[in-house]
Write a structure and sequence with these properties.
Blueprint lengths: L3 E5 L3 H12 L3 E5 L6 H9 L3 E2 L3 H7 L2 E4 L4 H9 L13 E4 L5 H12 L4 E4 L2 E2 L2 H5 L4 E4 L3 H6 L1 H7 L2 E4 L5 H29 L4 H8 L7 H12 L2 H4 L6 H17 L5 H15 L10 H8 L5
Parallel strand pairs: 1-2, 1-4, 2-3, 4-5, 5-6, 8-9
Antiparallel strand pairs: 7-8
């Protein structure tokens, strides 16, 4: 069983995943993307991890590497850049790619790694940064079945569940489906809060009562507390920033267009995130669409 694991990308998700793997008895060797970030590496070392200066150093020390990165460019640098994974010359590695990127980009990097004897799994994560802290994540895994089975202990280290979905790319397809629902449910939660508050109901009561009934959703439960607070200081505690979410919205929209598949509710929800960007909420949590809805409704708390 794999006991030493690499983690490239020590942001909100990656740092929490690392902490949970360490608690689960795994040794985590990590750096930020694509080069080492001293502050984030120091935070990893403080909780018992091992810091590294580059992806190459990690590849030299482990057999399984997790990548949790903000952009395709970052993944390209981690794989093929100076001191990237390929510069280690290892041919017995498994790379668990957990970011949400367009399928064509994942396949392109999959082929680059395969040409160098490295197996890449497509394993997007369902869950927010807050859920990552409490190990409330689900993994949508796809790719080589034997490689997936070799990584089960790693998945168990940072997720409550993981699903094997078959050929490479199916994990991303499932993530697009899940994120479509996340996008809609987050906006529907905001719409419900504003309707209730404008009708005179207390935000705290809306959250408490609806969470216990048929109208609830995981997004209502996860982002509802921020919407109850409803102030900039609440939304500034972001576990998914609006500007980063815009990347996911574009990926889903492009994927649906490639299939000529209508997504009318998703399209309507996307306008709320665009409005949040227009209001200067790019770095706030996506729950801030509640404030957007309040403004549209001419409602002030």
């Amino acid at each position: 069983m794999t006991k030493k694991v690499g983690m490239i990308g020590l942001g909100i998700m990656g740092s929490s995943m690392s902490a949970n793997m360490i608690k689960d008895g795994l040794t985590v060797v990590g750096c930020d993307s694509p080069q080492s970030n001293a502050e984030k590496v120091a935070a990893l070392e403080k909780i018992g991890g091992i810091g590294a200066a580059s992806p190459r150093e990690i590849a030299d020390k482990v057999e399984v590497i997790n990548t949790c990165l903000p952009s395709v460019k970052a993944l390209e640098d981690v794989v093929s850049g100076e001191n990237g994974i390929l510069s280690s010359r290892r041919r017995d590695l498994i790379v668990i790619e957990s970011s949400t990127f367009p399928l064509e980009d994942k396949f392109r990097i999959f082929n680059v790694l395969a040409d160098n004897g490295i197996v890449m799994l497509d394993c997007p994560i369902s869950g927010t940064g807050a859920q990552a802290v409490s190990k409330d994540l689900s993994i949508y895994a796809s790719g080589d079945r034997k490689a997936y089975e070799a990584c089960v202990a790693v998945f168990n280290g940072y997720a409550r569940s993981h699903y094997y979905l078959g050929e490479f790319g199916n994990g991303s397809k499932m993530k697009y489906v899940a994120n479509l629902l996340v996008s809609i449910h987050n906006v529907s939660a905001a719409e419900a809060f504003v309707l209730g508050m404008k009708a005179g109901l207390a935000a705290e009561d809306i959250y408490r009562v609806v969470s216990d009934g048929a109208g609830s959703s995981r997004m209502f439960e996860v982002r509802g507390p921020l919407m109850v607070g409803g102030q900039d200081e609440d939304y500034d505690k972001a576990t998914m920033k609006v500007d980063i979410w815009q990347k996911d919205v574009k990926i889903i929209n492009d994927f649906a267009n490639s299939l000529d598949c209508p997504t009318p509710l998703f399209a309507a929800a996307a306008q709320l995130y665009r409005a949040a960007m227009a209001q200067g909420r790019a770095k706030q949590d996506t729950a801030s669409v509640c404030s957007v809805m309040e403004e549209w409704a001419r409602f002030k708390r």
